[in-house]
Amino acid sequence: MKKNTIPMPDDKGYFGEYGGQIIPPELVVIMDEIKDAYLEISQTQAFQDELNDLYTHYVGRPSPIFYAKRLSEKIGGAKIFLKREDLNHTGAHKINHCLGEALLAKHMGKTKVIAETGAGQHGVALATACALVGLDCEIHMGEVDIAKEHPNVTKMKILGCTLVPVSRGTKTLKDAVDSAFEEYLKDPVNFIYAIGSVVGPHPFPMMVRDFQSIVGKEARQQFLEAQGKLPDVITACVGGGSNAIGLFTAFLDDETVKIVGVEPAGKGLDTPFHAATMSKGSKGALHGFECYNLQDESGEPLPVYSIASGLDYPGVGPQHCLLKDLGRVDYVAVNDDDCVDAFMTLSRVEGIIPALESAHAVAYAMQIADEMTADQSILVNLSGRGDKDAEFIADKLGL
Q: Which residue in 79, 83, 94, 106 is the catalytic one?
């Protein structure tokens, strides 16, 4: 692949045939206002300085790269490295784009920020960012996820956000998106919907990717400086795909680097209980954009499942869809059992408790490491920490 052959979205927000604005005309006007404000404000030195200052002194960036020596020795073969986004303030990569979206909302004069959350990391990060800049925050969350991710629910309430339980459908992430978007439509002039991943109508897949691209920029420079070469494989979990595209973007032109996105196979791809959009989905419209998604014969989204609440989404970011079609990124699936095994192994071998979402990527690295040689390397985006999942896993395993 030649350099610079991966297109950014066109002026209508399409990555190839994916993306766009599949929304009513009156909402297109609102989304275009957000796009224009983002393109104008984000290029100003004042906005960049403010955001970079917060990344440094508030988030704690750059996040380090850690060589998981004991894990690598246990598995054998390639060296496994972790990009430690779990060490960010609020415990995940989500703070990277939440700060950007909150600053944008403030500059646009919005009065309230509305969002959905699955595992609660986006909700915590957005509530944090809104507290920091002085904006009202409303988070919609499925009742199943509220029960499962109780520590993050408590944090959101402490941070001052309004938490809206969602009882419809499967009571998980997809339903939370529906609920939050309906609330946003009540007053799109004064509210802004801060989407939690690289999904939704244009400009959100572009904006969230841009804010998250700091992960890959840092990682590429850090790895080169420390190892004198690039990693052989980079990998990250993929639900909507924000942490993955954040890592992948900086490496897309590096032909020697294999890039792999890891989806949730749940209880198995041969069952209905998974959320492996790339592996089992087909093109369709979802939440205002075109993407691969898991849908029934009439085009309605199917119920999805993952042990990781942040991955149980029936669609995926449009840029990921294009990267799959171009063959630049491989997408694989890891099941719940392997995810939990990776969660426990990393915890007990390296003293790092990963988010269940991130553990999918750790599991993939563990699966391929012993097929590689000792002079090869795998870089995993450890997108979040597992505080939110610890009680759930302890109960599940009877610890």
A: 94
Q: Is the pTM of this model over 0.85?
A: yes
Interval 115-125: pLDDT, tens: 999 888 899 99
Q: Which residue is catalytic, options 72, 85, 383, 388?
A: 383
CA distance 303 to 314: 7
- Concerning whether 94 is annotated as a catalytic residue, the answer is yes
Catalytic-labelled residue, pool 116, 149, 218, 263:
116
C-alpha torsion angle, residues 278, 101, 212, 83 (rounded to 10): -110
DSSP strand pairing (329-335 vs 377-382): unpaired
Q: Are 160 and 228 in contact (CB under 8 A)?
A: no
Residue 116 a catalytic site member: yes
350 is a catalytic site residue? no
Q: Are strands 18-19 and 14-15 parallel, antiparallel or unpaired?
A: antiparallel
Omega cis (within 30) before 62: yes
Q: Give all domains of the chain, ordered by start, each with its CATH number.
A: 22-54+94-209 (3.40.50.1100), 61-91+214-397 (3.40.50.1100)
pLDDT for 324-370, tens place per residue?
999 999 999 999 999 999 999 999 999 999 999 999 999 999 999 99
